[in-house]
Request: fold
Amino acid sequence: MDFKIEHTWDGFPVKHEPVSVRLSPGDGGVMMEVSAPFFNDPPAPLGEPGKPFNELWDYEVVEAFFLNDRTEQYLEVELCPHGQHLVLLLSGRRNVCKLGLALSFKVSRGETKWEGKVHLPWSYFPPNVTKFNSFAIHGSKDKRNYEALYPVPQHELQPGQKPDFHRLEYFKPFNFNTLFGEDWKQPGSDLWQIEKPDILE
Reply:
């Protein structure tokens, strides 16, 4: 499955080669590959490459969100051209329940382009993923650019509206069966087990 981030968050065409995101079957999960222009703006985070880095969204990143739109449980994956990453599990809009999970993430970077490859284990995905969106951010201060695979429709923009990647209503339908076949069932995950209350007899 191949996606290209061709618009800003508010629906204007990007002014550079679009970021591309590819999803393919992996061993016990999904391989996610990113190919993107390298802006080197902002400068690299101070965290160690290959490790989680909190608030990575303040840097140059490509992000992918996998949502169950019935439960509003979703996986957010952030990848940085300098090798840092951030995984968030959220239950409800912006409600983080797990943060900074480990990833196997490899980056190759040139002067003007970078590529990343990461393995996302099934345990990180919420049950029954139904929707998807992907984003890219680069630039500093008033030159900060926010780009979206599925942007906010321009006729729905409000005066003074700011970019918000957690507007789950703008995510689009997504089905892993496209990758894995009609009869495939998504494996369960202990990370997403919600404790059931004790039933009194």
About this structure: The chain has one helix and 13 strands. The two ends are 49 Å apart (CA to CA).
